[in-house]
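Review form for a predicted model. The reviewer records the input and the model, then writes brief findings.
Reviewer: anonymous (R2)
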Amino acid sequence: MLVQNGRSVSDCQSIPLRLSTMKPSRSPGRLGATSYVVLGTIALRGPSTPYDLKRAVGHSIGYFWPFPHAQLYSEPKRLTEAGLLAVTGENGGRRRLVYDITEAGLAALRAWLAEPTNEQMQVRDIAEMKLFFSELARPEDMRALAGQQIKQHHKRLADYESMMTRFGSRPEFAGRVISLRLGLRIEYAALEFWTDYATETGFYPATGPSGAQAKPSESGKNS
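Model under review:
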């Protein structure tokens, strides 16, 4: 769940051509979650193309806030028209559009961060939905579900642990590692549940899986 630094405008060999100013052409209207994903990601990583945003979100926010990544190509244009982003176009090469946040965009982002957040965590989990209807399923199908989920959560934990190893001790990523710590705890809790359920349904013997106990590692436990 980390936004990694990518290639900035200075890396481009083409001469930049300024296409917009900070003066908004129209009111931004209502800003949604995708708006703040775009504003926040650009504020963290610096000038970015839509492709840069797609890659950065895929390695970070996309783990806990999935949405159609096609929006990362359309939303910057809307935010530019509203004066919250400024766009620079290359005067040669691939003629990419590179977006940067404006003072107005940063102010809008900070105002959103200061707003109260009272919404409950949203969970969209097909496996949990199948659990709800489990009395209609064959026992062997639910045992298989448990095994599949254990495998999936082990894989996600491996991804998160790798990120923690790479970025956990780097001060410049300290703020973003906080969300990674939460992700680790959620994954450990989910793995522990599915391991217990696998034992209950007979997927594992009553003694549990050998060497597969869902106990937090030092990085997850101390994070």
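Findings: Confidence is low (pLDDT under 50) at residues 3-18, 211-223.
Further findings: Strands lie at 16-18, 85-90, 97-101.
Recommendation: see findings above.
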